[in-house]
Amino acid sequence: METKIVYVEDCYDKITVKRKPLWYHERGLMQTATGFGRKLVTEYMIKLNNSGRWYRVYCCCFSNCGTMYIIKQGKDYCVKYSETLNVTE
Question: Which end of the chain has fewer CB atoms surrounding its CB within 10 Å, N or C?
Answer without folding.
Answer: N
